[in-house]
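seq as requested:
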Amino acid sequence: MGEKSVDKASLSMLDKAAQEGIETAWDRYEKQQPQCGFGLLGLCCRHCNMGPCRIDPFGEEPQEGICGATADTIAARHLLRMIAAGAAAHSDHGRDIVTTLYETAEGEAQGYQIKDEGKLRALAAEFGIPEEGRSKEDVARDLAREAMEEFGMVKGTLNFLNRVPEKRRQLWEKLGIAPRGIDREIVEAMHRTHMGVDNDYVNLTLHGVRTGLSDGWGGSMFATEFSDVLFGTPQPVRGKSNLGVLKEDQVNIVVHGHEPVLSEMIVQAAKDEELIAAAREKGAQGINVCGMCCTGNEILMRHGVPVAGNFLQQELAVITGVVDAMVVDVQCIMPALTQVAKCYHTKLISTSPKARFPEMEHVPFSERTALDTARQIVKMAVDNYPRRNKDRIQVPDEEMEYMAGFSVEAILKALGGSLNPLLDAIKAGQIKGIAAVVGCNNPKVTQDSGHLTITRELIKNDVLVVQTGCAAIACAKAGLLLPEAADQAGPGLSAVCKALGIPPVLHMGSCVDISRILVTAAAIANALGVDISDLPAAGAAPEWMSEKAVSIGSYVVGSGVFTVLGTVPQVLGAKKFTELLTKGAQDVLGAAFAVETDPLKAAELIIEHIAAKRKGLGLEA
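struct tokens:
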């Protein structure tokens, strides 16, 4: 492969890793070459014990698995199971947030409080829950109960579908994919993909979309909205990013994973004067909490906490030699961290019963004892500080400021309380359209290069970019989340950003917070009286790797947004299925996927799509 990263901090740590004989994700990726060709094409099936079966994509005669499943059936089953797993991950996160809100209302969650009562009451009204004259705790209790029922609902469809434009809802009803509770959709997905059940790749795909929609407009949306109620709705905040935020003279705690239930308490505990005094007794100047991956996004957008990096930097943070504790919960945590940490003093601490790691110390985390447990974890980091090997410390200089926290409410506030200024800018052509650039890192792609290349090309062409997840951290490190980055944008977008004092790239949160983007897109479509698929809008995942990204892609396309994938999905051996995803879906859903590994060409596809949608709305090119 070519250069491993465009990030200087990452490259310096990779050099250090090589010198010290430390294996990283990039090394393990190279060891896996060549990767299985049948797997890459989606043509290997092991769903029953008659197999595994594989289909030769170059065979002269049509081929089938032992049960008779074709390449299209096999690939569609695989994709549906990936959607189910990704939707389960995000929606289970949402369920934990809902449970925490309920326990907070009951007075059983230590250290938590309802920080956005206004949003709580607005959500209650959305769900038809009486709130006038009632305490916030009573309202929260009823709202949480109502939300819990939606996960395994037996009634109709999700309540948040009331936010969806009427044309889109009618389309889902017509296709039979209006999403129900996430638990029901995932169980049905697993049932359909069992041997001898659903063999129609079109039918499998439609249920994949339905499952994804149940995540995007259900589980993930609950995660976002209820996190705002508990921890505060993000507003623009400044902070710093990249490995340079780690401090040689302080106790460094890196929180890594996805659920703010844990990280919020760690941030709170690290401010404890007794613990700070204990750190000073050990020779440190203080306690420095930093984020990694989407947990980093959660706390940076609410507190301005420094973010040390995105997915592929988790091992590199340990390699600096100054991370005294890395605290993890769920999702995107590499099992290899335990092997890397053995070479340094870093204490790795798992906290979730859903995610145990061999050789990692486990400290059970419960909302009922949250603050006490957080203090215990911070104390463990403080006690570990003296064990550093000073001869192996190397912290990169690279750090970059960012502005994050652009929730839907924050965007409306910046616009003066109404979407009209944004709509006017789009109609006038100052902003040609909006693109969501989201997703992971993947060692198949030079780290951050896909995110940065496509984002820079889009803003240069007056396309406003909104971001979440690792993509947002990539742009934070590159300075694109600063108002000054407006100088890199086209003249129209630049003028709008300078007038509002905002960056041309808006950080909207963690990967579950793509639900914020859905809400924004729906609000714009409703304001214009059109479907989401009619908007000059698109999505891109230049470096995606996880099953969560597959769920996201399915609900974004299912909601009517054209989406470009920068790494190749494992479906290309199934020709009819691939054609359905990249062409046929356009006729059915009003949107489809494109696969383009060159980020400049991907940007061109988005720009062309936005131009076509503008023309369809009668707007100037």
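The two ends are 39 Å apart (CA to CA).
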